[in-house]
Amino acid sequence: MKAKTPNAIDAYVGDRVRQRRKLLGLSQVSLSASLGITFQQLQKYEKGVNRIGASRLQRISEVLGVPIGFFFDEGDRAVGQHLSPHADEVASFIASKEGLALTRAFIAIEDPNVRRTLLALARSLGSSQTGPEDSESWERMDNLRG
């Protein structure tokens, strides 16, 4: 008998829970304790194996300090459609240890001029290792950033 594949929306919501938890520096154990569930149950939610009920999602949003819409916010696309490969790549990077550390460090920079300088440096370093066709990727990243 084949294992059931997680529903795409459940997996997306679970991934958003995981991303927010990591951004806040919470472990699965600490978040699950705040929710009154086991960390194994939280793992199942984050993987999309188990669907998160409405009342539980409300509590998760309170603990993580985001509105419920955060878990469904997919920019200009409808829920249930697949992310572009580039958006998946960005989401995976941000969820990684290095991406999370870089994001936190960048957010901590208060001077907008320093942020722009750092962004220009990152672009030049990225451009030196890739071809000119990746300039479109940078533009898409900027658009995702807002």
TrEMBL record:
This is XRE family transcriptional regulator. SUPFAM superfamilies: lambda repressor-like DNA-binding domains. Residues 17-71 form the HTH cro/C1-type domain. Keywords: Plasmid. InterPro entries: Cro/C1-type_HTH, Lambda_DNA-bd_dom_sf. Residues 137-146 have a biased composition (Basic and acidic residues). GO terms for molecular function: DNA binding. It holds the Pfam family HTH_3. Transmembrane segments: none annotated. It comes from Rhizobium grahamii CCGE 502. Residues 126-146 are annotated as: Disordered.
